[in-house]
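Thanks for the sequence, V.! I ran DUF4394 domain-containing protein right away. Repeating your input here for the record:
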Amino acid sequence: MPKTVRLTAPLLAGALVGAALLVAPPAGAYPDGVVYGVRDGATLVTFSPSNPGAAVAAPVVGLQPGDRLLGIDLRPVDNTVWGVGASGTLYTVTVGNGGTTAMAAPGPRLTLNTDGSAVIPVGAAFGVDFNPAADLLRVVSDTGQDLRIVVADRPSTATAAPGAKAGTTFYDGALKYAAPGDPADAMSPPTPVTAPDVNAGKLPRATAAAYSDNVAGTTTTKLFVVDTAAGVVVLQNPPNAGILNTIGPLGVPADAPSAFDIDAVGNAYGAFGSTLYRIDVGTGVATVVGPIGGGGLDGMTVLSAA
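Predicted structure:
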């Protein structure tokens, strides 16, 4: 019986918080971190970021009939793993026995903050990542959809989404490249953009997203997005306005499926096609790590070793 421990980045362990549990990988199996990825919406893939070819795959049990996971991410505030289903259902995900078992527990459905109507993610590819400062789940898609999601009831004193119930979803500004007159920051009133982005006027195809400073209690974070149509990494700023600012080209084929995450110590990884890359979010440049055993990923979350 594997030992069950609280999941922290240094231990790469599991957490028992509410409905979600992660069981620690076998001792010594992932000394440099671990990647949990989603493949084809219903398979959980586990591997070391330095050895993606040795991936372990397990079917995800517990999804609602006909549903599939669009992406997953670690929630920094309590170290639980959450996923978003194509049906608009939130899930907590249990990973056990070194990645050989995976269980999804359905949670609240996504409902619009204004009238409580059902919200369905729209698109063929999605970026799913927690904002570690606000403790809200961001979902972007290749159609330009830009959502903020509450995964647990919020206190009335919360700075972001005070008093909102689990599942409450905010439609933020549709994704677009910065153009003159767009907000350049989140100030009130915002500073206007004066010069167009190099990709202004193009329709972005956002297929993956990741926040920096990915630790509980952080007060600063940046949202990075991969536009696979343009083959670039962009900064989404202001995030709630959906304004994209080009950082630079990946320099590698941005093939589908795609996934992207930044771990707690700032290591950024991307998966395009069936290859894992390290990504420099300062320049956008991707560097090959190696092929991923069994194929590509639709989403992933990366746990650092320290």
